[in-house]
Every structure is written in C-alpha cells, then in structure tokens.
Amino acid sequence: MAFENKEQSQAYWNKNLRLMVILISIWFVVSFGCGILFVDALNTIQIGGYKLGFWFAQQGSIYVFLGIIFVYARQMRKLDREFGVDDE
C-alpha cells in the first residue's frame, strides 16, 4: 500500500476508524442493548413463536455481526478505490 503523502495516509486511516466505530457501535447496540438492556420490552413481540429479546440474544446479534462484516468489506473496497490502494 503506497500513499502519496502522510496527509493521504492519515485521511485513509481516519475514514477507516470512523467506519469501524460506527459498525462496532451498531453491533454493541444490537448485541448488548437488544439482548440485555431492552430484552423485557422486546419480549412483548414474538417472531415465529419466540420472544424477540430472546431471539436477539441468541441469534440476532450474530446475524447482525455477519452483516457488518459484509458491509465493512464493501465499504473498505470503496475506500481503497477512492485512495488508489486497491488490488485491481
């Protein structure tokens, strides 16, 4: 990975960090918030016979995490192209 200057390298890293903070925050809200903090409120809703709070604690946060991996990969591909450091 070769950047033209230190400012370009710093801009790339700042955008990467911003993306990671946003995605980790989403995962935290879903896994900790929906699975622990808001479980009582979510358990009033049922999906497929299971309480929604239980579903988030057992499966929902895992699905969200997998989605976040794909979003991160796609966004990093765009960021790499923007800064001219992609593999293509």
UniProtKB/TrEMBL annotation:
<feature type="transmembrane region" description="Helical">
    <location>
        <begin position="54"/>
        <end position="73"/>
    </location>
</feature>
<dbReference type="Pfam" id="PF13937">
    <property type="entry name" value="DUF4212"/>
</dbReference>
<dbReference type="InterPro" id="IPR019886">
    <property type="entry name" value="Na_symporter_ssu"/>
</dbReference>
<feature type="domain" description="Sodium symporter small subunit">
    <location>
        <begin position="10"/>
        <end position="86"/>
    </location>
</feature>
<protein>
    <submittedName>
        <fullName>DUF4212 domain-containing protein</fullName>
    </submittedName>
</protein>
<keyword id="KW-1133">Transmembrane helix</keyword>
<keyword id="KW-0812">Transmembrane</keyword>
<keyword id="KW-0472">Membrane</keyword>
<feature type="transmembrane region" description="Helical">
    <location>
        <begin position="21"/>
        <end position="42"/>
    </location>
</feature>
